[in-house]
Design a protein that fits this description.
CATH topology of the largest domain in chain A: L-amino peptidase D-ALA esterase/amidase
Order of helices and strands of chain A: EEEHEHEHHEEEHEHEHHHEEEEEH
Number of helices of chain A: 10
CATH superfamily of the largest domain in chain A: L-amino peptidase D-ALA esterase/amidase
Oligomer: homodimer
Largest sheet of chain A: 6 strands, mixed
Structural class of chain A: alpha+beta
Shape of chain A: globular
CATH class of the largest domain in chain A: Alpha Beta
Helix content of chain A: 25-40%
Strand order of the largest sheet of chain A: 13-12-11-14-10-15
Distance between the termini of chain A: 36 Å
Largest interface: A-B, 62 and 62 residues
Chain lengths: 388, 388
């Protein structure tokens, strides 16, 4: 499972004393090559954490040999001293592996505004280096958990027409734009396919655009989100872009659904699909507006198929549609036709965790799905009591 | 108090059987002139209720002689039949007063997607007409309450340099962009100043821009919001624009603060003031982004001065600022300087209902305040159990 499934990767996870629980809190993933092609995407937030400031520089040349990740502290809004901590961790990893610090991505997650203890991080790096193993993915996936209830891992086997097998592995933590508790989404993806950095970049942006970017649990954007793809080329297989990109979308989609299922405090996973939109952008804008309606999300928590709140959210967008001719279905029941009541809302059973909302804009042939969670007492509780 | 304080107005409120409680649920405010100058602003939502569709046409000529309002049903997403109900109510009022239906603004509030019983509304109009009184403002203010705990009323006395006294009265219900439960904000303002329709319009837009438009309790935009200003000219006093506009800002500000104080489920009123912004738009954008952060709002509910969530929200805007040089104070304690921890957050006492957040963007000399409420268990409860 996880990031060590593809050939050419070692990983490990140790307890560095960052988490008060004493659990695993530092992970290292190393690409042993022969290739070290890479691509990354980061949070769009302008106020970003020190590891993101560092890693954005590291990834520019398309070469990454290692990713070091810690939970127990986000190293965000901690100033120049915090940046030096990130730098020191990268140097420690580089020294241990005999590589350059400029090839080491650093990711941190946990509370923001608190300084990470540098000595713990450096000792953790020393401790994880001798434990790096081709079966270490499981430990690494556990070491990046914060408030996650389960670790998130994925493996997708690649099929290449021209022969040769390859695979993609991945691990994720937290919630990203799902963001309960502003928990950062950290994702490391690995592959032994022989793909260059430009292919990695194109495929990664294609995949995140339709997966992680369409998770919107509470509209809050993290300061630390990082998704990094490492390609070792160790399988020798050279998939086409379509083959590789398709597999990467499946891997990211699977991890995104695991994040959605584990979103803290959530009772429901809500898939909002907007159909017959004039453009994909319109469909995403409409879906996102509904996903960000506290009123609608609270209604789903209360098992109330309140389609009026869906229409009220749609009306705040500038997507193309006729306000008098919108159709809305919940769990397949068309409770609203032509912006007026249609089938009986009592037919909508919201007792299951999974809920679908379908919005027909009647304005074109584009569609998109945005995923969110409901707004629950547990969400308020966990986010009102987090740092105190 | 209220809308009948200025000379030239009568009002009344009756129980028309729209509310299951049997309480007052239909109000009528009549301008007896001599002038019937008027101005209105409506929700920016594109999916609007039938009374808003009707009233937008009515107000176009700047002449309004009566406003009829009902609670107990929003008449929203109810199709052509719902529009005919609104039209019939306006006609009934017009017939009773001997005026044209095209001079009657109609406002409705309550659940959306449900048809209002037309016969109750028409009987209610017949019942309120003989009760219209120059002391009827109090009843009218009560008849438009839905989930409001108290009625909202205001009187501002006008001082005119050139002599002559005049005043502004007002009543409000609900929550507008505050929108707990998508409760509509309905506001009727009256004045006996002699001001023409163009002056009314300019003054009303000036006032709502810095008051009601900067309330943002939960980011949800109602389908029925209506603010109407009626000027009778009965005092004969002709204030300057500055005099009238200043008084109208005070009246709207007072009503807005009453709405904020009564926002359902709220434990805190949060005033977010952004200073040293490059523009007022930037200051509003930054304030609104913080006001819409569920994470920040839940933290305030938990009495947690979580300034990291403030910075993370600021970072989602495109306002002018240096992400590494932001200052944030909560209740006057500068917990963040230059985007790093400063004064001890433990010094911030969040036990009081009123909370101030000050954000220094260091990018100019503009400022603005946005008001919001915290995100509480009660908010989730009330909005998950509303229509069921």
């Amino acid at each position: 499972m996880s990031v060590t499934h593809p050939a050419g990767f070692r990983a490990g996870g140790v307890a560095a004393g960052l988490k008060s629980s004493g659990g695993l809190d530092l992970a290292l993933v190393v690409n042993d090559g022969p290739s070290s092609a890479s691509a990354s995407v980061f949070t769009a937030n302008r106020c970003i954490a020190n590891p993101v400031i560092w890693s954005k520089e590291v990834v520019k040349d398309g070469v990454v040999r290692a990713v070091v990740l810690n939970s127990g502290g986000a190293n965000c809004y901690t100033g120049p001293d915090g940046f030096q901590t990130t730098h020191a961790v990268a140097e420690q990893v580089a020294q241990g592996l005999g590589i350059g610090a400029g090839d080491v991505v650093v990711c941190s997650t946990g509370l923001i505004g608190l300084t990470n203890p540098r000595e713990n991080l450096l000792a953790g790096v020393d401790s994880v280096l001798p434990r790096l193993d081709a079966d270490g993915g499981e430990d690494a996936a556990h070491a990046i958990m914060t408030t996650d209830h389960v670790s998130k891992q994925v493996v997708v086997e690649g099929a290449t027409n021209t022969g040769g097998s390859w695979s993609i592995g991945g691990m994720a933590k937290g919630a990203g734009m799902l963001a309960p508790q502003l928990a950062t989404m950290l994702v490391v993806l690995t592959t032994d396919a022989d793909v260059d950095a430009a292919t990695c970049d194109h495929a990664l942006r294609t995949a995140t655009r339709v997966t992680f970017d369409r998770l919107d649990s509470d509209g809050c954007m993290s300061t630390n989100d990082t998704v990094t793809l490492l390609a070792s080329g160790a399988s020798g297989a050279k998939p086409s872009f379509e083959e590789f990109s398709g597999a990467l979308v499946r891997a990211c989609s699977e991890l995104a659904m695991q994040l959605l299922a584990d979103a803290e405090g959530s009772d429901h996973e809500i898939a909002i699909t907007t159909v017959n939109a004039a453009s994909e952008d319109d469909a995403v804008a409409v879906g996102r507006s509904v996903a960000r309606s506290n009123l609608f999300k609270a209604a789903v928590f209360g098992k109330d198929p309140n389609w009026g709140r869906v229409l009220a959210s749609i009306g705040t967008t500038d997507a193309a549609f006729d306000p008098g001719d919108l159709d809305v279905a919940m769990n397949g029941v068309w409770v609203c036709r032509a912006s007026t009541p249609a089938e009986d809302p009592a037919l909508v059973d919201l007792s299951d965790r999974r809920v679908t909302v379908t919005i027909d804009l009647k304005a074109g042939d584009a569609l998109a799905t945005v995923w969110t969670n409901d707004l629950t007492h547990a969400y308020v509780h966990e986010n009102s009591a987090y740092s105190s």
